[in-house]
Amino acid sequence: MSVPSSSVAALRERFGDAILLHAVLSGDTIVYVRADRAHEILAWLRDEPGQGFNYLTDVTAVEYRDAERPIEVVWQLRSLERKADLRVKAELDKAAPLEVDTVCDLWKGANWLEREVFDMFGVQFRGHPDLRRILMWETYSEGYPLRKDFPLRGHLSRAEQTRQALAANPEAHYSLEELSIAEAFHELPDDVRERLRHGERGKVR
Amino acid sequence: MGLTIGAASNPTSISGQSPNWVTARLSDLINWSRTRSLWPMPFGTACCAIEFMATAASRYDLARFGMERQAFSPRQADVLICAGRLPFKLAPVIRRVWDQMPQPKWSISMGACASSGGIFDNYAMVQGIDTIIPVDVYVPGCPPRPEGLLYGILLLQKKIMGESLTDQQLRVERTVGPDGLFLPPAYIDEVSEPFGNSIHQTRSA
Which fold has domain B39-198? Predict the structure, then answer.
């Protein structure tokens, strides 16, 4: 099972040197692409008739213990019709700001997945409609827990962690939608609905 | 108990056929009625909650101990049972639930995680709910079997039977202080120190 997916040849033909390298691991095809063209390539993979990767299984990221290796953002794609999978990766240099284009416009399910990557790794997704923490609370101040330079027990003392946790007001960090007042949502004024649609609190700085 | 049932204990009494009066210390009577009608507020966050449900179900039957009614509203509850690990994100929530419960109230910390953080000596987990709210009974185990929880409840009943009605300190609300903490910071740091196997968890710390 070391035959790469047929998508690799098609990608190389279409995008040339934006496709950096590919590998086959345990039967899964992995394609490394240039981070600045990832959105374009993913859109093509979704829309091109022969590809049809219409389902985004997961968005995640990897940081290796080797400090010199870049952080990888991973998109796991699936074509529900063709029953085919493809893993697309883009490397982000740690010396530069960790930024990559959002794919929320392609797959709506990417919204929370990208929020999790942002929460845990600090990767900024350009154009994300509501990029804020999703697992940790919104005012969490200790950084990005899954980064290798993050201590297992966090940066602060337990007392300070406890103090900050108790000071967090959970009700302030969720939009009305998330507090599941879903029935009342349609009775709200148009401008309020529009604001909620984009996330009540807007973007995190 | 200090109950005296009229005439029955005195065989020489002339009106000794049926006891028709009772004497008791008021505190015994009140404590007895409290122990037999403890309404639990389940705060189930993890696998301990499964054991708690098993305890409440027919085989172990929590109702035998006057806990027929699970008070899923803190305002109608007497005992907060924290069954499972408590992440920092939930710290303000359990604090709010505890503050909403009316006096007299007690709490049971069920399982290793609620009592000490358990295996989760990491950035996300409260190292024992006693750094957030006062705890009356700790039930060890991972998770405790229903018998363990029942034993903890019986211990709590025993503790309540020993309470004094005139001790005003028992009913003082122990709120979060102006520094945002329930306990002195040095105390929280001390009880949160790594112990057992977790002293070896030094990855990137």
Answer: Rossmann fold (3.40.50)
Q: With CB atoms and an 8 Å threshold, state whether B180 touches A163.
A: yes
B126-168 residue pLDDT tens: 999 999 999 999 999 999 999 999 999 999 999 999 988 888 8
Domain ranges of chain B: 39-198
From A82, A89, A72, select the one nearest A30 (Cα to Cα): A89
Select the residue of B132, B189, B205 nearest A157 (Cβ to Cβ): B189
How do residues B100-112 score in pLDDT, each as one tens digit?
999 899 999 999 9
CB atoms within 10 A of CB A198: 12
Residues 6+ away with beta carbon under 8 Å from B29: none
Name chain A contacts of B127, Cβ cutoff 8 Å. 158
Class at the top of the CATH hierarchy for domain A6-197: alpha beta
Assess contact for B40 and B9: CB atoms under 8 A. Answer: no
Distance of alpha carbon B138 from alpha carbon B135, whole angstroms: 7
pTM: 0.80
User: Tokens 């700085």 sit at which residue?
Assistant: A205
DSSP state, residue A3: P
Residue A67, chain B, CB below 8 Å: the answer is no
d(CA A172, CA B106): 29
**Cis (ω within 30 of 0) for the bond into B143?**
yes
Q: Judge whether A72 and A100 are in contact, CB under 8 Å.
A: no
B121 CB within 8 Å of a chain A CB: yes
A interface mutation test: which of B85, B86, B89, B174 has the most A CBs within 10 A?
B89
Q: Which of B97, B123, B181 to mutate to test the interface with A (most CBs of A within 10 A)?
A: B123
Q: In what order do the strands lie in the sheet with B40-44?
A: B40-44, B79-83, B106-110, B137-139
Q: How does A64-82 read in b/e, with b if 16+ C-beta sit within 10 Å?
A: eeeeeebbbbebbbbbeee
Q: Any CB–CB contact under 8 A between A122 and chain B?
A: no
Global ipTM? 0.80
Report the alpha-carbon distance of residue A158 to residue B132 in Å, rounded.
12
Pairing assessment for the beta strands A28-33 and A19-25 based on DSSP bridges: antiparallel
Listed in sequence order, the residues at least 6 apart from A39 whose beta carbon sits closer than 8 Å to its beta carbon are A100, A101, A102, A103, A106
